[in-house]
Design goal:
It contains 7 helices and no strands. The chain has helices spanning about 5-20, 20-40, 50-75, 75-90, 100-115, 120-135, 140-155.
Length: about 160
């Protein structure tokens, strides 16, 4: 039984192939391959849940962002643009990202919660991250979350 997200990717891939959309079809093909690799990793083949498929898409989008940065720094603008474009295709399948204000509000709540539980100083970082991560899953990148937590803990 294929998950909703995976079947949406496959339907969109078929549409992209029919529409001769090379960028979209190659991006979706690579993402589906990454999902298949994840399914056959380990001792036995298994079907990924929508959450697991989403994690693969998040990971693939992050790879595109990092590659685009590397190409930009290396002076390879054309390759960087391609990676950015692939990242934009993948972004369509991700939950809407939280704004800085929304993220700060969630982090502030978590800081208060952690302090109430007695977490202070450097230990508070881990305690706050444990509270925040499930609330922002897929809606904010880990580095962004950690930065927001650090900023509020120091302030």
């Amino acid at each position: 039984m294929t998950t909703m997200l995976k079947s949406k990717l496959q339907e969109d891939l078929n549409a992209a192939i029919k529409g001769r959309d090379e960028l979209r079809s190659s991006t979706l093909r690579m993402t589906l391959a990454a999902i298949t690799n994840e399914e056959v990793a380990g001792k036995e083949k298994r079907e990924l849940s929508d959450d697991e498929v989403l994690k693969v898409i998040i990971r693939e989008a992050k790879k595109r962002r990092e590659a685009a940065e590397a190409f930009t720094q290396g002076g390879r603008a054309e390759s960087a643009e391609r990676e950015k474009a692939e990242g934009e295709v993948l972004a369509e399948y991700l939950p809407k990202q939280l704004s800085d204000e929304e993220l700060d509000a969630i982090v502030a709540e978590a800081v208060a919660e952690a302090r109430a539980a007695g977490a202070e100083g450097p230990k508070a970082m881990g305690a706050v991250m444990k509270i925040v991560n499930p609330k922002v899953a897929g809606q904010a990148e880990g580095g962004r979350v950690a930065a927001a937590v650090k900023k509020l803990l120091q302030g």
